[in-house]
Design brief:
CATH architecture of the largest domain: 3-Layer(aba) Sandwich
Helix content: 40-55%
Strand order of the largest sheet: 2-8-7-6-5-3-4
Structural class: alpha/beta
Radius of gyration: 22 Å
Bound molecules: ligand C6P
Oligomer: single chain
CATH topology of the largest domain: Aspartate Aminotransferase, domain 2
CATH class of the largest domain: Alpha Beta
Distance between the termini: 30 Å
């Protein structure tokens, strides 16, 4: 049975070109770039090339820093905890000592739970509520800013519903108030144009495996002059900010994927969107009692989150899986939780209906034939599950 992958917000297939380059750096080019011998020195120009490509993808000027991390989880934890540490009541805090943070109720758990942890150890956190489409406005941020606000952390695109938030206006409000701004751009990069300079943010996180790079590698953009405390202490890698031997194959793979993602942005906006819309329109027009979650317009081009009334999401996933179709009910890292999605509940969707939602996420490797196949099997699957739920 052919398998169809529609869970690209969880992770994407590594692009063949990225996989080929990584293979080289796993086998023949294995020198440690921190070493001074030929094996180590050989990797340096290739690393530089990969970093240049990553800088270009996120619109970072050479004067700014990009810390290579193990992914967005680390990048999000690093920046939020770093700002908290820099504001501790210590000699090193240099009189900063602000203790208020602003985020939203739809952030990925890597941000949301980090703030919950900081609350446990003394921080004050405002969780801005989104509207029924999953949007947050700059006005909400402005109203929540105080002279004690140390950091605002708001995602650029949501992983469950794809909603794109007005980051430029939010960052401008923070800039005017002199407050640091971080964005988790993990779900935006490779799907829509992202330019750290235009967004005018201080910190920005991302993960390579969301744009057809390898897993376990990503980055944290740090605007020039912005403070960052090391999360890991040890070696001198990454200007003493992130100790540990560099993941050379990962960085090389991320570099190739970054170049391709930049080249293919237009394809995402046109073809990927066309296929997503084809699936969405079919469902809306042919299957009764369905509810689209998130904002129809302000949304990443690949994401479709939809609830099928009287059709349990988990059951639907299993039935689809039986037919070779991989989708998800939401965030992959919360898929073991029996709780309904925090993000969907934040939209005001009732608990019962939020259990009936499914996330279909496409990529540039999704084909028309695959979407046609999904369209051909979905109505019967939904009908069967609804009959079971009605006890027929
Ligand atoms: N979201 C999803 O199914 P890592 O695991 O470190 O590469 O990325 C974490 C992460 C951070 N921010 C956002 C917005 C994300 O979407 C993710 C990963 C996956 O939605 C897995 S939970």
């Amino acid at each position: 049975m052919k398998r169809i992958y529609l869970d690209n917000n969880a992770t994407t297939m590594v692009s063949p070109a990225a996989a080929r380059e990584m293979e080289k750096f796993n086998t023949t080019h294995y020198g440690n770039p921190s070493s001074l011998h030929g094996f180590g020195l050989d990797t340096r120009p290739e690393l530089r090339k990969a970093l240049d490509r990553i800088y270009r993808l996120i619109g970072a000027p050479d004067s700014d820093d990009v810390l290579i991390t193990s992914g967005a989880t680390e990048a999000n934890n690093h920046v939020i905890k770093s700002v908290f540490m820099a504001n501790l009541d210590t000699e090193a805090s240099r009189g900063a000592r602000k203790n208020h943070y602003i985020t939203t109720n739809i952030e990925h758990p890597t941000v949301y739970k980090t703030f919950q942890y900081l609350e446990e150890i003394g921080a004050r956190v405002t969780y801005l509520p989104c509207d029924k489409n999953g949007l947050i406005s700059a006005e909400q941020v402005k109203a929540a800013l105080t002279d004690q606000t140390a950091l605002v952390s708001i995602m650029l695109a949501n992983n469950e519903i794809g909603t794109i938030l007005p980051l430029q206006e939010i960052a401008a409000a923070c800039r005017r108030a002199g407050v640091l701004m971080h964005t988790d751009a993990t779900q935006a990069i490779g799907k829509i144009p992202v330019n750290a300079q235009d967004l005018d943010v201080d910190y920005l996180s991302f993960s390579a495996h969301k744009f057809h790079g390898p897993k376990g590698v990503g980055g944290l953009y740090v605007r020039r002059g912005r403070r960052l405390e090391p999360l890991f202490h040890g070696g001198e890698q990454m200007a003493n900010l992130r100790a540990g031997t560099l993941n050379v194959p990962g960085i090389i793979g991320m570099g190739v994927a970054a170049q391709e993602a930049l080249d293919d942005l237009n394809y995402e906006a046109t073809e990927v969107k066309r296929l997503r819309d084809k699936l969405e329109n079919f469902i809306l027009q042919n299957i009764p009692d369905v509810f689209l979650n998130g904002d129809k317009q302000k949304r990443t081009p690949n994401t479709l989150n939809i609830a099928f009334k009287d059709c349990e999401g988990e059951a639907l996933l299993w039935d689809l899986n039986e037919r070779g179709i991989a989708a998800s009910t939401g965030s992959a890292c919360a898929s073991e939780e029996l709780e309904s999605s925090r993000v969907l509940r934040a939209l005001g969707i009732d608990k019962a209906l939020s259990h009936m939602a499914v996330r279909f996420s496409l990529s540039r490797f999704t084909t028309e034939k695959e979407i046609d196949y999904v369209i051909s099997v979905l109505p019967a699957v939904i009908k069967r599950l609804r009959e079971i739920s009605e006890g027929k």
